Amino acid sequence: MKLFIRFAFDGTAYHGYQVQGTLPTVQRMLNEAARQLFGFECDVMGCSRTDAGVHARMFCAAISKKGECDLPVTIPVDKIPRAMCAYLPEDISVYDALWVRDDFHPRYCVRSKEYEYRYYPQQIRDPFQGKRSWHVPLPLLPDAVERMNRAAQYFCGTHDFAAFMAQGSQIVETTRTVFSASVRADGAFLSFRVRADGFLYNMVRIMAGTLLEVALGKMQPEDIPAIIQSGDRVRAGRTAPAVGLYLDSVEYQPGSFDIM
After folding, report:
1. Read out DSSP for 87-126?
2. Which residues are bridge partners to 110 per DSSP?
3. pLDDT (tens digit, 9 = 90+) per residue, 177-192?
4. For the chain, how many structural domains are there in total?
5. Rounded-to-integer distance, Cα 31 and Cα 33, Å
6. Is 101 part of any domain?
7. Which of 67, 91, 108 is the last residue of a domain?
8. Which residues sit opposite 97 in a β-bridge?
9. 43 assigned to active site
10. pTM as predicted
11. 66 lies in a domain?
12. Rounded CA gap, 190 and 142, in Å?
């Protein structure tokens, strides 16, 4: 069997999740923690890739012995989260673990993912939020939240989101289904949430940047359908910085955790 873990991380210090040579990444830290805990080299396969600076409140991975399909350990599964945390830096925390079948795949078994993007629309920056939200010192329209929320509704449904994919991306199939999208005020912050069956490279960040253009009055909410239909990245808004992006939840297909 493989070990499935759920964990959270502050992505400020990392060049994303995926191993990239000798650069500090979340996967690199998990690989080393698993090696120290279990006593052999492990593969820690994640549910997604993330850009440098992106955070996660729920990220998922499957751990197996390197070169094999299972993880031959006898540590009680309920003890593993705390044990792994002992070998991890303070900005990564494993909080759940369970055994799954050898054929479980943490990416391909995903049913949906939900991201949150956080804006900090204040004139004066907050030194505690600089790496955890997008500081926007520009004046937004009085009805900015209502406009952004109205625009976000046009993302819902099954569409070709090529206009919301980073230029130069090699992804060929660009159709995705967005199940929900909304914007609300959250104290001094604005929160954009979007849930879909999958996301293209930089898709959420481009959506977030486009919604800011709507909040500034540079785009209208009703412009979104034409932007989607165009498939033209230039028509959409700027790419929001990675610091405001959080992978918030991951839902798996029914039966994914059944052990036969």
Report:
1. TS-TTEEEEEEEEE-TT--TTTTEEEEEEEEEEE--SS--
2. 252
3. 999 999 999 999 999 9
4. 2
5. 6
6. yes
7. 108
8. 5
9. no
10. 0.94
11. yes
12. 13
